Amino acid sequence: MGVLAAASRKIGDTLYGLGFFAKTLRGAGLFFVRGNVSSRILVMQILFTFVEALGITSLLALGIGGAVNIIGIPFLTGLSQERLIYPLLIAIITRELGPLLSAFIICARSATAIATEVAGMVISHEVEAYISVGIDPIEYLAVPRFLAVTISLFLLNVYFSIFGLGGSYLVARLFNPMPAAVYFSNLLHNLSIQDLLISTIKSVISGMIIATVAVIKGFSVERASTEIPVAGLQAVSLSIGLCVAVNLFLSAAYYIIGS
């Protein structure tokens, strides 16, 4: 009975999450058409999620781009295949690690913040106050955060790729001094529409997942203030797990279709 109850609860939670996502997605489609009063929340969330995360993103992107060059160039040069460094950089930074690490950064910063903020509103009965005056909490609280996190993750992923590929040129010069025009020309020659498309799809889906999970976990608290940090931790752990699973699935689909 315990196993059946747990399975039933899991199915119920999954269906609730899908329904919540569908309603949030519908509200997102109407957000700009309606001229929503919660647009200030959207702007502030983008500032926190995207702009304030640029520092750590720059450090990670530069470090990974540099590491690929430090390890890859000497090895590939020994095999007389040094030109393979360009597709390798694109595969690692743009196609694989860029979307995933950008998602991790936002999970660590924004998933926690959103879940605890919404949970605090539930505990303080602020959400009930919105409902009592006819304001849909999903439209007012979930939708702007959903849009902001999705947009921010897309932009952060683009920034990660640009900074990682561009910054790695400084490291590449240590091994093989070359004009910047030659380096970036080779990068652009090896960068395909498929690379950009799969990277964009990963970042957009991950952003949707993070925002939806964070808000759901925030709304799931009941009355005790001790539930607030728990909601934040659950939002981070579940978001990371789902983002990893989605990225693995999309990468596998990309390579299967591409082959």
Give a summary of the structure in a few sentences.
By secondary structure, this protein is mainly α. The chain has nine helices and no strands.
Per DSSP E runs of 2 or more residues, the count of β-strands stands at 0
Oligomer: single chain
Mean pLDDT: 85
Q: Give the DSSP E fraction (strand runs of 2 or more residues).
A: under 5%
Which class best fits the helix and strand makeup? Answer: mainly alpha
Number of helices: 9
Task: Using the alpha-carbon principal axes, give the shape.
Answer: elongated
Low-pLDDT ranges:
none
Largest sheet: none
Order of helices and strands: HHHHHHHHH
Compute the gyration radius: what is it?
A: 21 Å
| Spatial gap, N to C terminus | 46 Å
Total tally of structural domains: 1
- Helical amount among residues, as a percent range? over 70%
Structural notes for this entry:
The structure is a single chain. The longest helix is centred in the middle third of the chain and has 39 residues, at 85-123. Helix 4 packs parallel to helix 8 (193-219). This protein is 86% helix and 0% strand. The model has no long low-confidence stretch (mean pLDDT 85). It starts with a helix and ends with a helix. The chain has one domain (2-258). The chain is built from 9 helices and no strands. The protein has 259 residues and is mostly helical. It is elongated, with a radius of gyration of 21 Å. It has helices at 2-34, 39-49, 54-78, 85-123, 126-132, 137-175, 180-190, 193-219, 227-258.
